Amino acid sequence: MIQFLLRIIFYVFLLFLLLRVIRSLFSRPSKPRPNPSGSSPDSSAVTGRMEKDPVCGMYVDVSTALREERSGKSFFFCSEECRRRFLKSSP
Ligand SMILES: [Zn+2]
């Protein structure tokens, strides 16, 4: 009888763990982690296309980067400063 009870407790515990794992898996995408620095290019976490910033050489996400059109070509920048420098340097 005691063995039977222990088994039930064990299974309830397992079920509880499973529920926690499932819940954490589902809550992850809706809970974006705050990234205070934002300077480290984590290519594995970014879903969009990556383009090189022609000014500083950093890779930036196309969906979030600053964009500038020049002679039919699109350029992407990590910051407003890089964009301004690019506009100054090119005719
Ligand atoms: Zn830059």
Task: Write a structural description.
With 91 residues, this protein is α+β, with helices and mostly antiparallel strands. It contains 2 helices and 4 strands. It has helices at 2-27, 80-89, and strands at residues 50-52, 59-61, 66-70, 73-77. A hairpin with a 2-residue loop joins strand 3 (66-70) and strand 4 (73-77). The N and C termini lie far apart (87 Å). The chain binds zinc ion. Zinc ion (ZN) binds at residues 53, 55-56, 58, 77-79, 82.
In short:
The protein is an alpha+beta fold and 91 residues long.
Give the key terms.
2 domains; alpha+beta; 18% strand; two-stranded antiparallel ribbon; 91 residues; 40% helix; two-stranded antiparallel sheet; rod-shaped; binds zinc ion
Using the alpha-carbon principal axes, give the shape.
Answer: rod-shaped
Determine Rg (CA atoms, Å): 24 Å
Query: Helical content, roughly?
Result: 25-40%
Our count of helices gives 2
Number of strands: 4
Strand content: 15-25%
Total tally of structural domains: 2
User: How would you classify the helix and strand content by structural class?
Assistant: alpha+beta
Q: Summarize the biggest pleated sheet.
A: 2 strands, antiparallel
Distance between the termini: 87 Å
Unreliable parts: none
Please, what is the average pLDDT? 83
| H/E topology pattern | HEEEEH
Strand line-up of the largest beta sheet: 1-2
Which ions and ligands are bound to the chains? zinc ion
